[in-house]
Amino acid sequence: MTELTTSDTTWTRERIGDLGPSIDVPTAAEILRVGPWTLYRLIRGGEWDSTRVLRMGRTIRIPTQDLVELLYGLGAAQPVAATAVPST
Description:
Blueprint lengths: L12 H5 L4 E3 H8 L3 H9 L9 E3 L2 E5 H9 L16
Antiparallel strand pairs: 1-3, 2-3
Helix pairs in contact: 2-3
């Protein structure tokens, strides 16, 4: 699992999906283009309801699939089924 938090990263659906099953708050904040402390404040204040929040002790993680669905719509995290090409 890779955690990237550089400001010059271009986040695509595929790149977000490649981060693994869950991501840390600073990475989620970067993808959403907000400050990490803003996202921490929303989560800790119970105001964040856009995705599930996974708490493991003091660690807070965001499911990657939830973030993709937030950004690209429901079902966006599901793989696209290949279509058959008719033979001629």
